[in-house]
Amino acid sequence: MSSSLTEHTDLILDGTKIAWHLDRVHAWERGERIAPITIDMALTRACNFACHFCYAMLQENDRQVITREVIVHFLEDCAEIGVKGISLVSDGESTISPVFVDAVQTGSRLGLSMASGTNAFVFNRRKLEEVLPHLTYLRVNISAGERNRYAEIMGVKEEWFDRVVQNIRDMVDIKKKHHLPVTIGLQMVLMPQYADQILPLARLGKELRPDYLIIKHCSDDEEGSLGVDYSAYARLTEVLKEAEALSDKDYSVRIKWSKIQAEGKRSYQRCYGPPFMLQISGSGLIAPCGMLFNERYKKFHMGNIVEERFRDIWRSDRYWEVMNYLASEDFNAQKMCGTLCLQHKVNEVLDGYKKGQLSLTQPDGQPPQHIDFV
Amino acid sequence: MRVPDQIDFDNVVKAYQESLFTVLRGFRPTPAYLEIWVHDEDPVKSILNMIEAAQGVGRPDVSIHVGAETVKKLDLSRLSKLAARTGRVRIDGGADGVDVHVTFSAEGAARGTTIEERAAEIKQAWERRQKQFAAHLYEPAKASTSASASVHPIYVRAIESLAADVTHEGELIPGRGRVIESRREGMNLSVEVDADHIVRRARHWGGRTHLWRGLLEGLCRIMEGNHLQECSDHAVIRLENRLRDRSQPRPVLGIVTPESADPAFALLLDRVHEIFRQYCRVTGTAVGENTFDLSPSAEWLALGEKERLARIQQVLDESCGELGLPPRSAICVQLQRDVKVVVDFSDQVGLKEKPGLIMKLEAAAKQKLEKTLHFYIEEMHDGNKIRRL
């Protein structure tokens, strides 16, 4: 039997922090209704980019608009029931929502840890100054290090690359100037055919000086609709290691080795993660997982924050009926899910724990950064 | 006075909001130089964002017409002050609203000194976050308070039924396979495992009560014929699922696991894990990847496509009737890969009813027809043409 979490270094980017939330794990084990630790959501389904690898294309569901009133109520409910962190990532570009800045500031003032993943195009220095003090991390999705390839891969004009790069410079500058605790990250969604951009991007990061660059696999649905060739990742090991070697004291290049090497496979069948880590579509739809946003998976849909208060949805029998379905013999994540979902690492640990294959004990030492983002 | 390329604020806002609803990818505000503009529900902030967007692409000036209705909600002096950070501002009033003209200048930008003005606010927000982080305490885990040795009432009927028909009781007489035992007072369990790690026989004895005999009987039945690791991983989950009376509320408010459902299941789980660990130890078997998946029954597979669809439709009609819904409220439109059932609903089924209804229909089909069936509705496709090129 091994411990679930031996790594709790400064920044956990390829693992899970679930062992730091044992109070909630034990409440879950006792069959209590636990609030999610982290909610991953978007403020809109729309996006100004058109990335080729975009999983959101597979997540279409009935659109609704998240207004300021809706998001404020939602954040208040999160604070009330005990949610700890909200990451604005999910299936749309939240920065183009009229409520983005308000959402970040309101959540932070309510005591929630707020974070965002973005293409960083519509920022300017003033807006960055407005949101950075309220964010735990700001992660820029940038899957190329050269203008022309950026435009090809991310479906935009070449000059947009220059604007994004300038915004990253501004983020780093504002953070340093005001000694902000926010973590600035870059993220490359790596399809095997983008391998030529691994080193240019790692070098660009070294020049721009964010805290890290993370290179991750691309997820696909259970039908393989995006056509990701997981076996091809193995051929990129050397170049990925070369990118990692560009890390220095203040800039870290990290590869999500565990997911890349998993080749899209899962060790577990039950899905225990969603009660700890919930996902909300930019339409306001609540589903246990982003891979279940599409209308096809209607049986897993639990409500919509545009229509109902989140606290009421969370307390409803419907919410727990869906969560229970995922934990029952009726569900098999190996057969019924896409690859490498957000809850994957949490699922691995909780499943191993339930099978008696690993122990979950309170880790020693200082809590890791971004602890509210499991 | 309107200028030639003046922005009509209200029209641009309307188009922006519509696009948020209708466009999936390649979202762009118009005119093109507003591509970094983001609307804000606060009209002052929205207009300011617009001015900054125009400045950001290097335009020398910008002119924005704001309609009379919007002007009613607009704090013009606040807008004027904030816009002055970017250049020289002139606001002209008229019967149909106001025109905001900004000529960008370096002096204007210098007047803004936004970083310094915001420094205190940034510091305050940071300090607030630090305090919140410091207050992030971890309560020690509480021990389970349940000391009940009896079985939850929702399992009793099924367990009694098993206990009335015990076929797996008695000590296991060694055969060709390896026998592994877990002996504990009141619940002894032994299994015979073949060279492929399949449980060929499972037996129990010493069950002190009627209910324990029933539980152990149910467990033995589920284990036989399955890989021992699958038994260790999921047999007790399956047992709990199969014994639960579905007409009653779940035994706990949150997630039902063997441990949370009843201490009896937790004890069984412990025994099965112990047997698997013992087996691995004595045979040198490593814990491998468990990809066991329940196969559709031979009876189901033997049916033709047409017959399967007809039977599914029959269950849908019956179940809808039981739920008080009109006939043909749910239609089976497709069967994919033997077990994936795609259903569609009539207009009489409300949007909010669909998620709960499809789960109920699936449960009925699993119970009446075939345990491995899964229900879906038709996929909604992305209508973005750019990505489809």
Describe what is shown at a glance.
The complex is a heterodimer of chains A (374) and B (389). Chain A is α/β, with parallel strands linked by helices. Chain A has helices at 22-29, 68-81, 100-109, 125-131, 147-154, 158-177, 198-208, 237-244, 257-261, 310-315, 317-326, 333-336, 344-354, and strands at residues 2-3, 38-41, 85-88, 113-118, 135-141, 183-189, 212-216, 252-255, 277-280, 285-287, 303-304, 358-359.
Average pLDDT level of chain B: 86
What global shape of chain B is seen?
elongated
**N- to C-terminal separation of chain A?**
23 Å
Number of helices of chain A: 13
**Unreliably modeled segments of chain B:** 110-114, 133-149, 385-389
Strand content of chain B: 15-25%
Counting DSSP H or I runs of 4 or more residues, the number of helices of chain B is 15
Work out the largest interface and the residue count of each chain.
A-B, 106 and 89 residues
What does this entry look like structurally?
The complex is a heterodimer of chains A (374) and B (389). With 374 residues, chain A is α/β, with parallel strands linked by helices. Chain A has 13 helices and twelve strands. In chain A, strand 4, helix 4 and strand 5 form a beta-alpha-beta unit. In chain A, helix 2 packs parallel to helix 3, helix 5 packs across helix 6 and helix 7 packs parallel to helix 8. Chain B has 389 residues and is α+β, with helices and mostly antiparallel strands. Chain B is built from 15 helices and ten strands. The two termini of chain B are 44 Å apart.
